[in-house]
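Hello forum,

I keep getting stuck at the same step: I have a sequence, I want structure tokens, and every attempt I make locally crashes halfway through. Rather than fight my setup again tonight, could one of you with a working pipeline run this one for me? It's a single chain of 67 residues.
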Amino acid sequence: MQLRHLEEARRHVAQGERHIAEQEERIERLAMHGADLTGAKKLLENFYTTQMLHVRHRERILRELEK
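Reply #2:
Ran it on my machine without issues. Output:
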């Protein structure tokens, strides 16, 4: 069961990386057009926070599997 959880956690980390990269690209495009970046930057901060949680979860599972 832990291996299934590990695979899921790894998928979440990978998805998070994609979301962050896409949002960073969006912000660059918006900035080039002089758009207000407030909401886009807030969303990116939320992605960073969520990604940190996903990474911690993955690491916790790895530690448990090492026992």
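The two ends are 15 Å apart (CA to CA). If your local run keeps crashing, start a new thread with the error log.
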